[in-house]
Specification:
By secondary structure, the protein is mainly α. It folds into two domains: about 55 residues, Arc Repressor Mutant, subunit A (Orthogonal Bundle); about 150 residues, Orthogonal Bundle (Tetracycline Repressor, domain 2). It has ten helices and no strands. Helix 1 crosses helix 2 and helix 6 packs across helix 7.
Length: about 210
């Protein structure tokens, strides 16, 4: 079985984790983290409590797969790009596509992210999960950007680019979550992320060469 083709067991595990994550996100939006227990999440997801703890250490950890899904989407878009194209344009297109909901499911997922980020303002453990997801995303971007930048690219510049791209998305989503702006158009996640990306990468040689 190749790495690109997870086994049936792995797919089932990932599906269960995502079901639990969605249940946790919904309950946090309804009751807040303080008003939600691991038992509540397991019950909403239709799994046993022992199954919950097989995958997650805490109720806050349970939302990780939901938050990670967005990062994986735009990393996949970048991974499909061909080396040699201007990196600024490649990143902007990937960020725009990843944060522009193309269907009802994607719109719902953005709404769940907004609810989680609002709940995280008063929950340090939930904020820690969000920061960890972003740190993981930055690390996973490094080999992708290294391939796209090509031979001879400065490793320091690539690391700065990965940090800037990750922070552009993070700041955009956090800013959007604090408003009632729509999921598309002005002040949407995609609009804000592109603005952040321009500000954070404008002086980098990797993006102006």
């Amino acid at each position: 079985m190749s790495p690109q083709q997870p086994s049936l067991t792995e797919r089932r595990k990932a599906a269960t984790q995502l079901d639990i994550a969605r249940a946790a996100a919904a309950l946090f939006a309804e009751r807040g983290p303080d008003g939600t227990t691991a038992e509540d999440i397991a019950h909403r997801a239709g799994v046993a409590l022992r199954t919950f703890y097989r995958y997650f250490r805490s109720k806050q950890d349970a939302v990780g797969p939901l938050l990670t899904g967005g990062a994986e989407r735009w990393q996949a878009l970048l991974g499909a790009a061909e080396p040699g194209a201007p990196l600024a344009g490649v990143l902007e297109r990937a960020v725009t596509e990843a944060l522009s909901p193309g269907d009802e499911h994607a719109t719902e997922q953005l709404g769940q992210t907004r609810g989680l980020l609002r709940a995280a303002q008063d929950d340090p453990a939930l904020r820690a999960v969000w920061y960890r997801v972003n740190q993981d995303s930055e690390e996973r971007l490094l080999p992708v950007l290294t391939r796209l930048a090509g031979d001879g690219a400065d490793p320091l510049e690539i690391r700065l680019a990965a940090a800037a791209a990750t922070d552009a998305v993070r700041v955009a989503l956090e800013t959007w979550a604090g408003t009632d702006a729509p999921t598309t158009g002005a002040a949407s996640p995609a609009d804000l992320a592109v603005r952040c990306l321009h500000e954070l990468t404008g002086g980098m040689r990797l993006f102006t060469a």
